[in-house]
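Session log. Operator J.P. requested a structure for one protein chain; no other inputs attached. Running the standard single-chain path with token output.
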Amino acid sequence: MRARWWVLAGWASVGALAVARAGRVPERLDVRGGSLQVTEASHVDAMLATRFRQNIGETFLVLVSGPESFTGGHPRQLLDALCTALAREPYVREVTWFGSARDSTLLSADRRTAVALVTLSVARADSVLKLVIPIRMALRRALAAFPEGARYRAIVTGDTPLERDMLTVTTEDVARSERRLLPVAAAILFIACGSLAGAALPLAVGFLAIAVALAIVDVLAGLVPMSIYVLNVATMIGLGVGIDYSLLMLRRFREELEREVAVDQAIVRTVATAGSTVATSGLCVAVGFAGLLFTPLVETRSIGIGGLVVVAVAVALALTLLPALLAVLGTRVMRRGARESRLAAPRPASERALWQRWARALARRPGLAFAAGGLTLACLTAPIAWLRVGLPARHWWPSQTEAGEGLDLLARIGGAGYVQPVRIVVDWPDSGGSAVGFGALRGLRALSDSLRVDPRVREVRSLVDLRAGMSLLEYLLWYSDLTAVRARGAAALDLFLSADGRATRLDVVLADTTSLLSAMDVVRRARRLAAAPPPSLARARIFVGGYVAQNVDFQDDLLGRLPLLAGVIFGATALMLGLVFRSVLIPLKAILLNALSVGATLGLIVLVFQRGSNGTEAIFVAVPVLVFAVVFGLSMDYEVFLLSRVKEAFDLSGDNERATIEGLSATAGVITAAALLMIAVFGAFALARVLVIRLLGFGLAVAVLLDATVIRLVLVPAVMQLAGRWNWWPGVRRLP
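Structure written below.
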């Protein structure tokens, strides 16, 4: 109160710096993600980066579509001109297209779509990511310079272009969601608060929490890998809890003013009561995010760090900036008509009476309310029995992007499997081992044949598959002079043979009908083959990697960490609630009901996304983990809001039934308003183009809806009534 202007000036300075810095965060975030642990797939990546020549990098796929066949005439001239222009770029090592290779597989069946393979001369992941836009610009320039170029379309896709577009889409979705949310949140807050000043305060706290949190994330991104998903989570959680906490503080401040308390004293009481609730709630939410720090994925750990940061900032703003603003605005945050009289506005006369009647009805039939609420959650949880964890069979890559559109086009004309092949590295650790000896070539042929018989595999590319119909003896003679082979085709040799000649690479290209979910089974089969290799490869070590294998590795790792994650969250939550409310039953009840909330949320995700029309067939492994941690933390928000008022009333009266009725009637209104805002925030992100964010947004919106209705307005008061004074044991010694 005494330092209100210093507090405002300090936060204004922090906000200005944060806004200036937050804008550059997307470029510093990690698009690729993956496991932080050393896995088999990461070992393959390391071997490819250190053992193989680095003057050959990733291959981008360029798809050129037009109204006529590319086999001759002007279309053929345009295709040749485009590919020649790309080949002149300094970062391009080689361009392969129909005109250079005379390979009809680089044309679609109707010959009106051509595929060009652009092999880069750089291999560093960050350097490749920066080349996506230059290659696209080079294509646009070449098309614009050609007569009738407007009739043709050139699309760049591939592993890194998909990730680059994911970065763009994520950034755009965050900005779009914020624009959509502002008027919706303002309208809900104006209805809930009854004044422009009251509605503006929670919005200011929410958006400032986002800006400050992103500025801190920008600093942290220079120290640890931070996933692009932290953008969405910081925005969702920052706006949600920032508004939640502000609304709780504001509602309590107005209650104090309605009792004809002076503004200064009202602020002191607000911080002492609602402020304590906000601090406790923030700690409970932070526990959920802290549990994610024990996970091995860049994505989940980044969300944990981002969530901790944004919740800490939101709590700090609610306990410092908001009281300073209330001190300046005073009674202007009250409803119109209540400022002069300082009497209760219509809310206590109508809204609070409505919730009192509801609370008294629950008190008369707590057993029936408990049975009805429990049955509802049990029915919603039932679909979790169908949960299948894995890479989704559909909708994983945003199809509205250029790279996603290219992937869909490749799937239609054939060749989508070339974008993300399963990569196998065969290594001979002995100093005398050679990947081009007769025994090695015979073993590679046997391994290649075993992989190729799988109907989910389109083709295997390796040292023994470069030329169709070539015998092992011919390959042995051919590789006897590596210098001559490199002179004839250095790119192919460098791609499949390590610099020291003791390791080789096989690319398993999946069939177009093979989904990402099925591809995970292909990886598992390849690893079974590697564990029991052909006799000629008995002295070699075989490792399976690639994009799909990375997902298999960190899925197994993440699911293995789930018991630890659950134990940390359950234990820390129980300890905090037990200490705050001096009770054994309350934390146990909170954990049980929140677990039911998580189960019902996952059940609805399975029903809508996995089993729904054109469903994904599987749920990405990070989604159940994130839903568990984040929903469990956020559910404690309303738990603490409600129980704090119940405890406050119980301390005054010692009557559990009366305290439960008073606590519910006092908080039901603010919980409902806060829940509407949370649902609007999370619902906006349920419309995102990135599937993980869409699943998370939907899950959080559903969880808040269930938590604010079935759990907080039915099950919690029913259990409180059934347990009686045992709710407060051992804090209250004298029990009936």
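Operator note: The two ends are 44 Å apart (CA to CA).
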